[in-house]
Amino acid sequence: MCGRIASYTPPARLARLFDARLAQGLDPVGHPSWNVTPMRRVYALTGPRASWVIDAYRWGLVPSWSQDPSVGNRLFNARAETVASTPAFRSAFANRRCLVLADGFYEWREVKASDLLDNAARKVPYGFRRADNDIMLLAGLWETWRDPNAPEDPQRMLRTCTIVTTEASPDVAPVHGRMPVILTRETAPLWLETEERDARVLPNLLRPAAEGTLLSFRVDPRVGSASNDGEHLFRPLEL
Question: How many CA atoms lie within 13 A of 139 on its CB side?
């Protein structure tokens, strides 16, 4: 599961880093956040390598055939093991793949508070970033949803996305059993450009990141509330 990311690098800088252009109307400054939750804005790359485009998407995929956009509330992740066959994702997997750009992500580790009277499990948040400080390229899918009651109204159109997850790598496993699929600059074009007839190569990309790709650190528990934000949330917690 990946239900919280950090996304604070401005779109204009992302465009320079990946030699991409910004979609028309996209704010180059963006909306930096160190605590992005599903149903909020994320930035993603689409298109062939020679003409990559960065645009904003609402995190939580709404299939084009859905009658109710609230389905996106629970479709913010797609499991790599079933993404090609799940009805909500299979069309986007075949035709509409993207790279969600993130500075990092969070996961929670369950710990047993043995010294407490109730012996209850407690969840401790950890932040993850790339060891080389590069931007994360998270395998994603995107869709355009139009309100069936007003299909021509652009104000009622949604562009949404989801993040593909896989089993945890050695860097993540001590904290959580799942992680987002993190692609490299070498594998990213394959994810974006592979055509449907060649889709059999895609599962080979949906693997845990190599050991040593990520650094983890314990973070402020206040990251657990979606109302909290700020760069202090993505800093190692001083115990």
Answer: 30
Residues sharing a CB contact under 8 Å with residue 198, sequence separation 6 or more, in sequence order: none
Distance from C-alpha of 129 to C-alpha of 38, rounded to nearest angstrom: 19
State the DSSP code for 166.
E
d(CA 50, CA 30): 24
Single-letter amino acid, residue 121: A
Tokens of 117: 């009277």
- The domain that holds 93 is classified in CATH as 3.90.1680.10
Can you list the positions of beta strands (E) in the chain?
5-7, 21-22, 33-36, 41-46, 53-59, 77-79, 97-102, 104-112, 121-130, 136-146, 157-167, 178-180, 182-183, 214-218
- For the chain, percent helix, then strand, then coil, each to nearest 5? 20, 35, 45
**Distance from C-alpha of 171 to C-alpha of 20, rounded to nearest angstrom:** 30
pTM of the shown model: 0.94
> Domain range for residue 42?
5-234
Chunked into runs of 10 residues, the chain (239 residues) has average pLDDT values of 95 97 96 97 95 97 93 96 96 96 97 59 92 98 88 78 98 98 96 81 93 98 96 91
Flag whether 60 is in a domain: yes
Could you give the count of Cα atoms lying within 13 Å of 185 in the half-sphere of its Cβ? 6
